[in-house]
Amino acid sequence: MEFFHKATHFPFMHTRKIWYGLSAVLIVSSITLVAVHGLNLGVDFTGGVVVETNFPQAPNIEKLRTALAKADVKEAQVQAFGSSRDILVRLPPDPNVKGEQIGAHILEIFATVDSGVKLQQTAVVGPQVGQELFVKGAMALTATLVLILIYVLLRFTPKLALGAIFAVLHDPICVIGFFALSQMTFDLTAISAILAVIGYSLNDTVIVFDRIRERARTARKLSVLQVIDESINQTLSRTLMTKLVTLLVVVALLIFGGETLHGFSAALVIGILAGTYSSIYISSALALDLGLHTDDLLERKLMKPEEVDGMP
Amino acid sequence: MISYPRWKIVLVAVVLVLGFFLALPNLFGEENALQLARDRAAVSDTDRTAVLQILKDKRVTPTGAFLDQGRLTLRFASKQDQLKARDMIAEARPDQFTIALSQASRVPEWMRSLGLSPLKLGLDLRGGVYLVYQVDVQGAVKQEIDRHEQDFRASLRNARVPYQDVQVDYAQDRVRVLFRDADSFDKGKAAILSDNRNLNLTDVTVGGAPALQLVLTPQQIQQREDYAVQQNIVILRNRLNSPELAVSEPQVARQGVDRIAIQLPGLQNSAEVKKILGKTATLEFRMVDETNNPLEAASTGHVPLGSKLYYTRDKQPVLLKRDVVVTGDQLTDATFQPNTQDGAAVSVSLDSRGAAKMLKNTQENLGHLMAVVFIDRSREKNAQGVEVDHTTEEVINRATIRGVFSNSFQITGVNPIEGRELALLLRAGGLAAPLYSVEERAIGPTLGQDNINKGVNAMVFGMLAAFTFMAIYYKLFGLLADFVLAANVVLLTALLSLVGAALTLPGIAAVVLTVGMAVDANILIYERIREELRNGVSPRAAITAGFDRAFSAIADSNVTALIAGLVLWLFGSGPVRGFAVVLVLGIATSMFTSLMGSRALVQVIYGGRRKVDHLSI
User: Is 0.80 surpassed by the pTM of this model?
Assistant: First the structure.
């Protein structure tokens, strides 16, 4: 079986203005969403208490809230997660709360509503630790971006590198925008997913660029625009096939991986989609508009002075 | 014929066989087990024989018994056997071992002796408790300064040198001894130096009078802080290994500069463990001031010189001498004796220094009263959120010295409920600096199993989808890719088992993701081969070109993922690090399997043929 038996000839570069517009909309709306909605930061970053419980039958959440209020547990957020039988309680950081006690305490309160309730998980994160984890996460993101930028700059000509850098920034912004939109919990696993997206989404761009360089060397008669269009078309089947297979496994994670991996797999799905799009439509187009020339792509410029003189 | 070096094929075969072998222990599953550990010592081979004999006499046969890292693990076919065996061992050898209920792999003895072990599961898959403690390193430095202050006072008192005051300034890390005149200054300095030779003292003038000053250097402070963290780690390990807390495979590790992370797999209720871990309890032995009236001192607030006011458990005031006879750190052993003729007691052994002091003291003070002071330091936040050091000092026992003793004796009058805990704390040693909990995660065992099931399901379905797709889309080459992908998962499992990295739920996600990335490399190669074929190149040349040309693209595209993985490895902790480890190792194995593995496979299939007309791709 083969989806791309004949070589494709999509004129990607001609429509690039449209895709720039789309990317601009994506980025601006992502940033606006984060600014307006904010991210639903997980307990990893805010500090506080999370208690996860499991009920034999779906409980009435309102009843649970009243029970907590009666027992003087203040500022508790009660919500179902995953299934309606799994109830999560989140409390703001409180220096006097001790993990082993709060878990048992909440279980006791919930047992008055349904005695079959079980304690699944408790996490108590001090506010200081939360802040540190947040800073660490941000540092990890920055470090990865900087290292990848250095790598790209070393590996490609500056104009291509700039295109790649834009693609690298584009994808995680879309993922973060998605988190702001869906209000999914943004925690440490979400950060690892974003890092994986950064590492992985550049992959397509690198492969397209690799091809552009190769084509520029072998087909010297073509213009840059033609080289880019041909290269993207030639690598298109590979790009789409790999992304399809990766999406298959990541969607399996999303469906079967359970609540813990939900945000993680969702981030990967969005990241892979954004990455595929940006590597096809954006990164090379940007390089082109930055004034990429075939000469930039030839590693050794074997131009002799006479040839330069002979040019009109 | 397509040429490909034979040694590469051999290498691939060897690595695959080795990988399969290393991954093998993961197929055996787990069964109920007991873990026996000994307080502050390794369980020996003789212990093993003895324990097996006990079980044999009672007709309970373990399915396996092995020593690992000083712990004896006994496996049992059923839960009943496990529980029966625990009771038997505890009965036959009371208080000798810590007996913890756990799970152990069914890996046969010969594999284990070769060093082959299954994957370790992270807490999110196994269930358990994760604790992070902050070590109060500043408190440790304060203690150091306090110790100098007390030493100086003692030296001056012993040498009978008059002095004005010994002042402590924590903010400046400084202790100053103020004298009245030059004469007492000289004598005082000589007295202090003769007791502590290595001190770096400076002469200063404070308010016109001579003074002696000790300022801790930044190196000394750092050393002290490091020591406090290291020492606390040792003590926490000791406490976790004591028979009173039956914890299996506790892990204690330093995290960052001043934190200690503790993993307690399988532990359900952390309350008891936490209570013991955070305690900074220690003992002091002091002589009772029998000449002054403690009630008067308590009511007037005027404490006679050389004495200090304490209270007993039932709030009775007691005056004790300022000089400490023996402190808790000179204790070498402590055991709880629930039934002595004087009620519950703790028998105590002292080290040689403590023994010598105790001997001298009991000789000099025969017939006088000696008191045992229980000191518990803790740090808590008050209503305003300000941290307050909380020290409880209680006189738990006063007794007349009836005979001369030195290195071992009994403390009577302990509360029978607390006696056991006290013995544990004394034996494990006092913490070098107070601790307080900053992070705590507890994962229930059902959730752990649930996570495993979900992770495995996601992996199976994800891989199945990818495999089917590849086989349909690339035919024979797709099947080859599937084989290579499966080999990749085996190699990854082998590598993870070998390094002993714990597998977490995000780690399983990384395995799935690795499969996706390894597919990517194969697709890259196959698409290239197809492209070459489309360009009219012969099948043989297409294979060679496909692999060769795809190499740089594969290498390039993996570098960026590798960078992200390594950064995560450095910055992450817990499950996130688990993800990073698998990601990085997975990139390595997928590069190997797709570039060398599938090339070798193609070579085996097509390489020997004289003529290749058609590729099944």
Answer: no
Residue the block writes with tokens 């699944």: A120
Is B546 within 8 Å of B516 (Cβ atoms)? no
Q: What is the ipTM of this complex?
A: 0.84
Q: Of how many residues is chain B composed?
A: 617
How far is CA B131 from each of CA A98, A240, B123, B509, B565, rounded to the nearest angstrom?
12, 45, 11, 24, 25
A123 with B461: Cβ contact below 8 A: no
* Band of pLDDT at residue A29, cut at 50, 70 and 90: very high
On whether any CB of chain A is under 8 Å from the CB of B575, the answer is yes
Identify whether A177 is part of a domain: yes
d(CA B355, CA B325): 10
Give the residue from chain A lying closest to B574, CA to CA: A188
Domain containing A239 equals: 16-41+130-297
- Both structure tokens of B333: 């052993």
- Ordered by where they begin, the domains of chain B are 6-24+448-607 (1.20.1640.10), 29-106 (3.30.70.260), 137-220 (3.30.1360), 280-422 (3.30.1360.200)
What digits encode the pLDDT tens for the residues A97-131? Answer: 665 677 888 888 888 888 888 888 888 888 888 88
Reference B177, options B215, B216, B213, B217; nearest CA is B213
User: Cβ distance B232 to B260 under 8 Å?
Assistant: yes
Strands annotated E in chain A: 40-41, 48-54, 77-81, 83-91, 118-125, 185-186
- A199 contacts on B by Cβ (under 8 Å): 560-565
Q: Which of A240, A270, A98, A90 is nearest to A178 (CA)?
A: A270
| CB-neighbour burial class of residue A271 (10 A; exposed 0-12, middle 13-18, buried 19+) | buried
How many other β-carbons are positioned within 10 Å of the β-carbon of residue B32? 20
Interface residue B555 vs chain A (CB under 8 A): no
Judged by CB atoms within 8 Å, which residues 22-81 of B form the interface with A?
none
DSSP letter for B292, please.
Answer: S
B255 in contact with chain A, both atoms CB, cutoff 8 A: no
Separation CA A108–CA B92 (nearest Å)? 39
